[in-house]
Design brief:
The structure is a homodimer. Chain A is α/β, with parallel strands linked by helices. The first copy, chain A, has 14 helices and seven strands.
């Protein structure tokens, strides 16, 4: 495909078009992936999450600056599958990052949420593969929360940074949200606020209480003030330390396998959905449907029958 | 199964245990569904959604009171798959509803979000089937937003009530969020606030602009003040009108089919996941894995191979 060749040679518009094809689940998808896949596996993928208003985008902005000074090519994928009731801020944040838009070594893309029913985490995975093939050294995946879809999306990151702000009750929220299990690095942003030191102490205590056998990496807690560019290089160092840890511990391999396995599962799952829809249009499918509707056949036995029809056809 | 028999005879503890089994994806699941399925299809399922702080739970509380005065058995399933950062309020809301806890004709249940990775909407569907079999007339499914998972969950409701509050920009949020497409009834809560009438006008205008050919039901916009019990019976009437419309237009049948089809798909999807995991442990699966990891085989071709292995075994 010419589009893939152009993208691999650094043509930005081709990259943008390929990502749009992936986002829209284009019919060329399998072909695109077949052509790019051998070029993937080189990028570092970092996840950034935290509550709305924690200053994630400003932090990402600062990280981009630092990474550019290290001569790294950086891509940002911003995904917000959470409630559109609070979606207003995201757009503003994207606009703020536009100061990097003139830099050919920086690529920023938001992934839409409308009409993405069920496919958002799959599309995000494949967008990351495209950016990886395009030669970006670091791909930052930013999400605005840790709901079910966000967790699936964060599953593709090698290092997850959880951004918090000093507010009463936050360390309990961290526990409740299961963030101790997903975080590799904590950024305590807006750390000039008076409650910052208390949250810092609580977080460090909580990190100390985690199961060391299970997680031989002790999550660092870094104080930052993204707006004033304070603490950001220390945060970057902590992320890079985690990347070194992944390589040295052998965890990078198992992570990479989990990521690829989930991609294969997503592909099979999409095919399954299409095949079930097709099967219900056949005469034996229609019969199963009638029995389901009259409640003489239950959904589990119907699943047996439907998978029989699908694999026989 | 004794547990199912007891539940069908109105034993509350058996109902609670069955729901826990469904929530935990118990190994008895297929058997449970086979035994209850013929008893389902009678309940009305209403979805209630809206932004945090819109007063959904108070409104649900008032609706329960009214429905009880009409001698209906009512169940509430509260699901919050969204960010746990804002999860604090939900628990409080549940506690507030406990005033109905002494009433044997009311059943309230929260579904957990932790460890529910990917299975929350499936589990919710099956919990609704259990409550339907248990003889509840109305099942209210409450979600705290309209992200991807929430939309999947709302897909099981026959009538969707979107609760809004008068705040500037809200009607634009409604458009952006795609709520015009999912709402059957709007509740404009806290309508004593000064901006209420403007939002009301905007909503009515937007409803008027929707495609009438596509949606022959014109979504009513009802002003409520749940705290003072104002407008709630009018809201209830609008919901019941929509239920009548579903029956008269024939849409109830097609809705019911979509619901059952998605349940069959979810079952097949769960099985697929298990089968893929098992396949990757076989020797041919291990070979595919090696080729994926060395990037000599792409995920789409791997999916072809894996489904070949699965259906041959």
């Amino acid at each position: 495909m010419k589009l893939v060749q152009d993208m691999l040679q650094g043509h930005r518009l081709s990259l943008a078009r390929l990502i749009t094809k992936v986002e829209n689940r284009d019919s060329d998808l399998a072909e695109i992936m077949a052509e790019i896949y051998s070029k993937t596996g080189r990028a570092q993928v970092w996840g950034i999450t935290g509550p709305p208003g924690a200053g994630k985008s400003t932090l990402v902005d600062r990280l981009i600056e630092l990474l550019r000074s290290q001569n790294k090519k950086v891509a940002v994928v911003a995904v917000d599958p959470s409630s559109p009731f609070t979606g207003g801020a995201i757009l503003g944040d994207r606009i703020r990052m536009q100061k990097h838009s003139g830099d050919p070594q920086v690529y920023i893309r938001s992934l839409g949420t409308r009409g993405q029913h069920g496919g958002l985490s799959h599309a995000t995975k494949e967008v990351v593969l495209v950016l990886d093939a395009a030669g970006f050294d670091i791909i930052l995946v930013e999400t605005a929360g840790v709901g079910q879809t966000e967790l699936e999306i964060l599953g593709l990151a090698q290092t997850i940074v959880v951004v918090l702000v000093p507010e009463s009750g936050d360390s309990i929220q961290v526990m409740k949200a299961g963030l101790m299990e997903i975080a590799d690095v904590f950024a305590l942003n807006k750390s000039d606020r008076p409650e910052a030191d208390q949250l810092l102490r609580e977080l460090v205590t909580m990190v100390g209480m985690t199961d060391h056998d299970e997680k031989s990496w002790l999550m660092p807690v870094k104080k930052t003030e993204a707006v004033k560019n304070v603490g950001v290089s220390e945060l970057l160092q902590a992320i890079q330390d985690h990347q070194t840890y992944l390589t040295q511990s052998g965890k990078r391999q198992s992570q990479s396998w989990e990521f690829i396995k989930s991609e294969v599962k997503d592909i099979l799952s999409d095919r399954l959905n299409q095949s079930v829809d097709a099967t219900f249009l056949t005469s034996s499918g229609q019969e199963v449907m009638q029995q389901l509707m009259s409640r003489t056949l239950d959904p589990y036995r119907a699943a047996d029958l439907i998978s029989g029809v699908s694999s026989a056809s």
